[in-house]
Protein: histidine kinase
Amino acid sequence: MNKLSIRLGLLFFIFILLIETMLFFFLYQGIISERIQSETGNLLARGTTHRNVLEKNFQESTIEHVALMETEAATDVVITDENNKVIKSSNEITDGMQELINNSKAHHFTHHGELLEDRWKTEKYMATVSPIVVNKKVVGFVFMFLETVPIRNMIHQLTNQFILVGVISIFITLITIFLLSKFIVSPLLEMKRVTEQISQGNHENELNTKRDDELGDLARSIQLLSDNLERLKKDRNEFLSSISHDLKTPLTYLKGYADIAKRPNLTNEQRNEYLAIIKEEAENVVALINDLFELAKMDENQFTIHRRSVMLNDFLEKISQKFQPAFNEANIILQIKCAANIRVSIDAERFRQVISNLLDNALKYSPANTTVTVEVNQNKNGTTITVSDEGEGISEKDLPNIWDRLYRVEKSRSRSTGGSGLGLAIVKKIIEGHGGEISVRSKVNVGTTFTIHLKDGGAN
Ligand SMILES: Nc1ncnc2c1ncn2[C@@H]1O[C@H](COP(=O)(O)OP(=O)(O)O)[C@@H](O)[C@H]1O
Ligand SMILES: [Mg+2]
Structure:
């Protein structure tokens, strides 16, 4: 047995025992006092009836008749004169009866009769007395007796039955507690065992998730937790292996170019060229590490969005000016379509990162003589910003993965298109931080469109 089931069981047991004891006590006492009352009531009523008959006709033959009537009954009658001298009795008068009759001598009894003895637990008889009054004078008494032994026997039997029922109900309680512990505590213990296994990295366990009660809910939650944890672990491992790959590649370049630059027979010009490559690669690594750091902060929810109202037109124009030389060099047209009065409440610094990343991609993945367009639309449902290009596009297979960290369609890291694969992951985080959404549509060799939707509508 385990602790919870013992505690639960004990609590149940105590409560049920308390309730049962109380119920039994009231029931038991109620039945007994009811029984006694009805016995004494009957005795008195019988005595009164005899008395009434005798009052009408207080003669030998009537007395005889009354005594005769009681001979076969469980009760006994004794008829006396006004001085308690026995005239007639239905059965032999015992010492106990005589004693009661004698003790009642010189007492005054009301006409409708009185209880003479009701201590059924200790005395041999319960008794009543009814005075016989003829012409306003007491001429005698009708004593009624009932033996208490049968009553005591009956109550003894009742007690036994109550004890039996009590024992049975305690037994049933024990069985209930056992079943309860089996149905409640056992699944809990099983879940505890499974969660311990999960924390040790074992996700193979199967829980009973089919129950449609709270325990089923708990089991399903644990299962979900286990699945999530497993997925997270897998993600982390994949992430670690791609990050080590991504760090190793540029560092290999660095080492290679550093070796070459060390050669003694190089011209100054050549050496400077290699040093420039080394510098560029080093900058790439720094950028990658910065991005990773950024994402880690975002994951920890340590980044806050500092919103302020921004005039989108000016905002986009400023970014495009910075990109213009690069676009010119690649012979790609960059156009901004944004009405003059559109305002949004955004974190400008972060949002600049978003647009820059998207423009950077559009530039990187588009051939010469194409157009990249940034277009803004605002209505009461919010603000939509699209960045579309006419570049190489993304295949349907790759499309869902582009938001993943370090995911690049072109896996080989060529130095010309060597992005980190973190750009879109950062973009997504920032947009979600703004409570917005970002989606992508793309067709290979036709172009790609990224659509940002902000809830910030034209009304505010
Ligand atoms: N405009 C685009 N056209 C074609 N492919 C794109 C475009 N934007 C992103 N991609 C694909 O999505 C991948 C992930 O993008 P991103 O997270 O910005 O990483 P990076 O640009 O550093 O490679 C890119 O490697 C590229 O394959
Ligand atoms: Mg990018």
